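Lab notes, practical 5.
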Amino acid sequence: MLRAAAIAERAGVPSVSIVTTPFREQAAVVAKGVGMPALPIAEYPGVPMTDGPETVRAKVERLIDAIVDGLARPVETALTRAVEPAARDVVFRGTLDQVQEFFYARLWTDGLPVIPPTIPRVERFLEFADRSPAEVIGTLSPENRAATVWSIAVNGVMAGCRPEYMPLLIAVVEAIAEPEFRVQDAGSTPGWEPLIIVSGAVAKALDFNRGQGVMRVGRQANTSLGRFLRLYLRNVAGLRIPPGAGDKGSIAATFNVALAEDEDAAAEIGWTTFGQDQGFAKDDGVVTVQSVVSSSPPIYTAGTRALDHVQVLADVFGRACAYWSFTGMKYARWQPLLVIGPSIARVIAADGWTKDDVRAYLHENVTIPAREVERYAWHLGSTAFSLKALAESGALPPEYAGSGDPDRPVRVFPRAAWIGIVVAGDPGRNQSKGYVNNHIQGGRVSKRLALRL
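Output from the prediction step:
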């Protein structure tokens, strides 16, 4: 909203952005990021979805003076930015402890100790990137800061990465800089986390954990790559929790671990890799980034037939996705991710099922009553949400309009092709797990690595 207001103001059209009290600090960060810190804002006090109709009406009436004042007051529209240190500037000298305190006081760390990004360390990372340090990958909101190869190396050092991870770090930033990823929404209230998925022989070559404990901290490659992305979003995009709150995740969660695919297990059973599913060659190293807003419980399945396992996956993964499915329906884009343990994938494949067969089963058999979809949407604030209207507009298949019976079942997964499947985890256990993404926010973006192993 504030970005649109800035465009309007620069075009000579007065604007006022109405924000609620909890969003005031985030609005200031966005306004500063677009170079117009004085953008007019009218503040609705409190949380509208917990106010009754009369309270809302009274509070809105009290906004009128602020709206009129904002529309009448000229706004400085020159794009201005604070001067920041240049790439090779030395910003501090001191002991290791002093460096930690200096960085922490300036909100440059995630609260944990960092590796000081000295120029020699940064230059070592750059040796693994055949690109100019000054090259701009993109511009990241909300602070509209340029994502450069140099800043990627700096944050890679700080996160504890190894220099040879640099091609992956670049690919991660290339992914989040794509418009499809919508990094500008990465600080939204659901508190979604960007998940990195590493596919191809690069996972084995760089010693990523792909098996037991695959999503647990403990392996440098998985842990430091995940931490890098969170640091980069903090230091370059500007997504920080208070103070400096560009991140509005209400009750957020962070897992600083990248998911690595067990390519050998997928090949053994004749399944395509996740990288191939994204359109790349089997020999390509691929990095994918997508949002995750919640996860399923661990899903244990047993039996010797594919259906023994897929029915339970549909029950548990489906229920984990059902509550949040209205967001995918509303925005006609949703990309949940199912991580299937190697032992489970082996049984399913041996029974003749492909990944597409698993997707088709989930698409056809996981449903939720229409009444519940619309009720959950209303509680989020999508008070005009209507499955019938979305179907009539073409955003959803016609079946979602259905009979009009509020208890009619509708599919949780509107498109089978949207469901991602990765083979990874403990080969000695019968466990899988599902991850729910945040509709169009954090859309799945994949990049091929600039290396072959």
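Observations recorded by the TA: The chain is about 40% helix and 15% strand. The two ends are 45 Å apart (CA to CA).
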